[in-house]
Amino acid sequence: MISQQMIALRNEMKKEDVQAFIIPTSDFHDTETVADYFAARKYFSGFTGSAGVLVVLEEKAALWTDGRYFIQAENELKDSGIDLMKQGQEGVPSIEEYIVSNLTKGQNVGFDGRTISYNDALKYQSAFEYAGLNLKVNLDLVSQVWTNRPEMPHAKTFYYDEKYSGRTISQKLDMVRKEMEKEHAHTYVITKIDEVAWLYNIRACDIENVPLPMSYAMVTMDNAYLYINQSRFDEVSRQKCEEANVTVCDYNQIYEDVLKMNGPVLLDPTSCNSRIAMSLTQTKVLKMSPIILLKAIKNEVELENTKWAHIKDGVAMTKFMYWLKKNVGKMEIDEVSASKKLTSLRAEQENYIEDSFATIPAYKENAAMMHYHAKEGSCAKLTNEGLFLVDSGGHYYEGTTDITRTFVLGEATEEEKYWFTKAMRSHIRLAKANFLYGCHGYNLDILSRGPLWDCDMDYQCGTGHGVGHLSNVHESPNGFRWRIVPERNDACVLEEGMLQSNEPGVYIEGKLGVRHENEYVVVKGNKNFYGQFMHFECLTWVPFDRDGIDASLMTADEIEWFNWYQQECYNKVSFGLNEEEKAWLKEICKPL
Amino acid sequence: MISQQMIALRNEMKKEDVQAFIIPTSDFHDTETVADYFAARKYFSGFTGSAGVLVVLEEKAALWTDGRYFIQAENELKDSGIDLMKQGQEGVPSIEEYIVSNLTKGQNVGFDGRTISYNDALKYQSAFEYAGLNLKVNLDLVSQVWTNRPEMPHAKTFYYDEKYSGRTISQKLDMVRKEMEKEHAHTYVITKIDEVAWLYNIRACDIENVPLPMSYAMVTMDNAYLYINQSRFDEVSRQKCEEANVTVCDYNQIYEDVLKMNGPVLLDPTSCNSRIAMSLTQTKVLKMSPIILLKAIKNEVELENTKWAHIKDGVAMTKFMYWLKKNVGKMEIDEVSASKKLTSLRAEQENYIEDSFATIPAYKENAAMMHYHAKEGSCAKLTNEGLFLVDSGGHYYEGTTDITRTFVLGEATEEEKYWFTKAMRSHIRLAKANFLYGCHGYNLDILSRGPLWDCDMDYQCGTGHGVGHLSNVHESPNGFRWRIVPERNDACVLEEGMLQSNEPGVYIEGKLGVRHENEYVVVKGNKNFYGQFMHFECLTWVPFDRDGIDASLMTADEIEWFNWYQQECYNKVSFGLNEEEKAWLKEICKPL
User: Fold this and answer.
1) What percent of chain A has pLDDT over 70?
2) 3-class DSSP state for residue A379?
């Protein structure tokens, strides 16, 4: 049955003379997780997955989503009149192909340019113009139809003190203007909330697990602007902005202001929303947003704080490991209750703000699903067997953490040990890497992935990602991936001070999943005739579960690293444990 | 003292009102090795190295070359009035900076556009125009001054039969036109001699070690043209061209013809000479020349032939190894006489044409110099100690080979064994690689280079390169390098049928050099849920010198590969040996 909201939307489309309307899963800032206010695709389609694009025509509609969500989308779209388009499957048309084949020359395609990046809009534009269709890029039909829409996020902001962030606003503006000079830009438009938050040292819990306020910024060689809902803006931040000569304007004011700026205007076409980009008459400098790189290279204050955040996080995780290993099989624990326990242990740590993403607790075969989501009530109960994978992290004032441990419940089988150890070797091979300055993640990825490839297997994700500092837990532009995807800004040179996760895994459908994830910072090693050597310094200090290790499958070097690491965990986190926990930790950290 | 030729050149510059003239080391086809006819930079500067750019001003002159040649250039330029510019050293100006700082606005810079690629010319153009200098891109001052210039190469061509090349001219034109369609090009200009030779199945020994004739080509959707000195063109090739409707024109005719062609015109800006590219008024499609990829993916006939060429080459190399190991210390052998012996053994093989490059025989510390050139008379004498590196290859009708072996003379020291084994492990790690389709060389390079990086060392070159089929021994676009250099067209996906060398090494200044080089072809492995796996099939069959191996430094996997490889060498090449050689080979191929 066609829903009321779809009927209402089609009425609006008719009024605007639009025969196709595109609703992506996005806010105005290209944020990875969207707030409820922006969940328009879910509102109209009924599909609740985290990724998907809805296209509504006059008589039919379709939703594109990826392999993670095929089954869920099939269920949720049943009887909705919306066809499921399985992305990446043979014969499935692209959005452009679908629209072009259903419309006739001279008809109109619309979207809200704020929710679609400039690059995507250009792609649509060229396809539709080629087919003789017109594009209406600034249609906000959603607001007109969605009557009970959730509020726009407006949590109170707070100033992210220099004792954590390490740089004043003025210092950051100086860094930014140097980059603008290099690009010969007079104005720089910043639309991503993590970039604005970094630039002005502001934070706010607008979206669950994402401590960043909805905002825009513009910087010229002489002025700087922050666009934010003023009623939510805190006094300290206001004062700090004033000191740094930052003009604070209303959130929506940017759409007018940008038109008055001097060109050339620097913007990042992969993230800048197309309403802003397409409204410009000035010369555009289309480059990766310079803040992405500045932000990724953590300064010494950020690094010191991050190290402490990881120690606290390590205490919480180690306590969790103790609790889990001691109690499984003796009390009722399921995936969700375990993850709640973990959150409560993190929350006991000083300066904890929130989890850095929704914990992924996945038992046995559930862990083979890389995007498994445990639901209260229906989730798996833990017993004294099998592997239990827990991917989690915390936001602390000192920084953001991300860690995965795979726990052996009861006694591990030979097969479990085999795969557990294989993933461990992958982790260690990358952790120990020594490489010349100039390397990208794609040069190193095979160190981790190679042992899986050697047996014609793979993990279908990156080996690692950059990590924000009280910011997005997934951060560009650094990462460990073997393929380069230019529009993802994810293949930069590994620079000193960058944070990287290292999280290879083994996933065997219907059976088990293993992942071993630590975070590392890129540091300088020796400099000699050959160049500047670089390596990784570990930030995460939680023992790997030795019950999963078959040392006979490891090289001497790997065993040495493993033993060193376990001992360091004891040295670094035992101070935060009680006597019982400490004694247990000492035992499990002893050499293999 | 300023040479007569420099004085004459400056006179010509005056006549043409040119205040700076650029003479690179290049022919009209961007060939790696230039024929004597094109050695203008050497003629004017007196510098004999293989790479360098001479810039002549009214009152001074300078020569740019790289680290390989600093000492040699200093000697050869002494008293010439030409300053040496050491490329890559701090404070050394670029060619553009040097010219801009020495000329004044309105003055003129000239070069012969046939000797400078379109990309380089554009780079010069933008720098000089920015500085208010004018560019004269079609000045052939060299011909006017160089009176006793060697002849233009004009060896008789021969048709490279389909039994070796595997495709008729018409089949190749079909392949090319499909690529032109994809790029929406109506005309395709081909200026590299290896691409023309591939397209029309012609060869000629114009340059030592490079069996390719000086020629150009153009292809349209309906016609095809070959531009070549007609008097040198053989009858079979003429007939084959006629059958395939290829119009054979005079060598220089292309410069007029290209102006009459329909656009868009496809050309490769990294190699197409700027005189052609800049004369075009048609729309240009600037892409990597499609033949580069078509040529790199060897067809089944080329592969079968190549395998046989390697077997023959393996017989010659194995005989050389026997001769060397038996006679060193007993008779007088030096680097040059050893390499002559090797050439004579190759020449005994059926269908041998010539060496595929000048053999590099490097004893002891000479092998640490990656571009060491042994000279008759002054080269090192071999004695019963140390390592002797020999990098060599052959052109046979069946294909081109490239192999390096490092031989232990006498008994290896612990240190020699250590580095010999380290380089061996690097070779094996890459040789055994299993990887998903889509990988580039930069994904795999660390498999070889990693063990060196682990001890803060490096070899300052790629780990491997593509190889031509009776063509250039170094062939784009595939290779094993960790850095991407886009203008080198050298970072493609590894496709089934590509030939790659695998040649990691260890070079310790003043002491020793080790390199272990085999050639491999990329082949398909298993295809499953994760994708298409790929690996390497070995082509080269010459035993590595087991006297250099310390098996205790190798993993069980690596030893297994080594033992398998040595046994296969025996199986494949012993048929070509006499009884004595055969018995010896059996012994040295036994398992570690």
Assistant:
1) 100
2) coil
